[in-house]
Amino acid sequence: MQTVVIFPTGANGFVLDLAPGQGTRRPPGPGEPPRPPPAPPAPMVVDLPAHTRVRMVAALNPAEYVITAPPPLLLDWSFQFWNEPKPHGRVSIAR
After folding, report:
1. Mean model confidence pLDDT for the chain
2. 46: which strand partners?
3. Using one digit for the tens of pLDDT, what is the confidence trace for 42-85?
4. Which residue in 49, 72, 75, 82 has its CB near the most CB atoms, within 10 A?
């Protein structure tokens, strides 16, 4: 049995965002209130039996961003474990 402590700041602790230099978050439209910063829930503790596989899913809505970089779009992902190093990487998306 392995106990894992997760900071669920994104979809269950799996965070996806534009890589630096790819664009900026679109400001609210006329009459829209400012978007509040995300408020993460409390950390979770999960017990995983040996050889368990867990699929982590996250989504990013490109309509919420002004994309300024040429294709492909680069996205950074990270999994928010309690301990360092946190698993992270980069994915390229053709557009």
Report:
1. 79
2. 4
3. 666 777 788 888 777 777 888 889 999 999 999 998 887 666 78
4. 75
Please, are residues 73 and 14 in contact by the beta-carbon 8 Å criterion? no
- The residue whose two tokens read 């392995």 is 2
Task: Give the domain extent around 12.
Answer: 2-93
Secondary structure E strands in 12-87: 14-18, 23-25, 44-48, 65-67, 73-79
Whether this model's pTM surpasses 0.70: no
Nearest 5°: the CA angle 91, 51, 57 is 30
C-alpha 12/C-alpha 77 separation (Å) is 13
- Closest by alpha carbon to 40, among 1, 70, 9? 9
Tokens of 82: 């309690």
